[in-house]
Amino acid sequence: MPASNSARAVWRTRLTWLIFVLVVALTAACTPGCTRDEPAAEPRRTALRNTIEATNVGARLIVTATVTTILTPRSFVVADVDLPAQGLLVLSDARAELQPRGLVTVYGVLDRFDYARLAARFDLAAPAAYHAYDNRKILVAADVSSRA
Length: 148
Prior knowledge:
The protein is α+β, with helices and mostly antiparallel strands.
């Protein structure tokens, strides 16, 4: 029996040393606040994308944004961080129940604004009200849902 106890003692000692070495190695590698030469990770910065600029005329689009200007019951401007700086002109065949600063979801097709071509169809106000949108992309709405 003494040989068997001796063998157990050797294995117990080896196992103890193995556990000790693993604990030391893991502690050295994973200690919070340890100083390493690696730079700290920084969050990635993503550029805001102008959705309208990145989308082709004729494409179907759903936009949820804030109403900034109501030009007529069928033409209004919306704004959001990924829309053009001057806002997005929306033209609708149906009258929309809108609130200034209200949230709307618009489903439609991108088109280029041409006052002469669109004025009669959408019962637009005087041309001066739309000057900022001449030849720019606009959204012709098939559906407007007010979230106000």
